[in-house]
Amino acid sequence: MDPKDIERISKALSDPNRLKILEQVKEQGNMACACIINFLNLAQPSVSHHIKQLTDSGLLIPHKEGRNISYTIDSDKLNSYISYLQSFGK
After folding, report:
1. How far is CA 40 from CA 5, 21, 43, 44, 69, in A?
2. CA–CA separation, 58 vs 71, rounded Å?
3. Which of 71, 66, 35, 40 lies closest to 56, judged by CA?
4. GO MF annotations for this entry (predicted)?
5. What's the CA gap between 71 and 2, in Å, rounded?
6. Got the DSSP string for 53-86?
7. Which domains does the chain have, with CATH numbers?
8. Fewer CB within 10 Å: C terminus or N terminus of the chain?
9. What angle do CA 11, 56, 13 make, to 5 degrees?
């Protein structure tokens, strides 16, 4: 993995709200932005900020559906990051 990718993902995962978003999207498989807002019970601008961090890191993939956007997890990116971290334990 590129060091910049590792940095972006590490920063994205450093916030508990972002971890909650990832957990929820993983459970649902695909989650609309409005559902994320309702789930976190945060203001829309705060949720947008968290989602931007996760999409910029490559962990979330946006899918535009008309006027709505839903998100899925990029499993390949997440698994590469996990493999990178596991390499320290070997």
Report:
1. 26, 8, 9, 10, 17
2. 11
3. 71
4. DNA binding; DNA-binding transcription factor activity
5. 23
6. HHHHTTSEEEEEETTEEEEEE-HHHHHHHHHHHH
7. 3-89 (1.10.10.10)
8. C
9. 25
Per-residue tokens: 20: 């909650």
Task: Measure the CA–CA gap between 58 and 5, rounded to whole angstroms.
Answer: 8
- Of 62, 73, 71, whose CA–CA distance to 36 is shortest? 71
Interhelix angle 44-56/16-28, rounded to 10 degrees, is: 80
- What backbone torsions phi and psi does residue 73 show, to the nearest 5 degrees? -85, 135
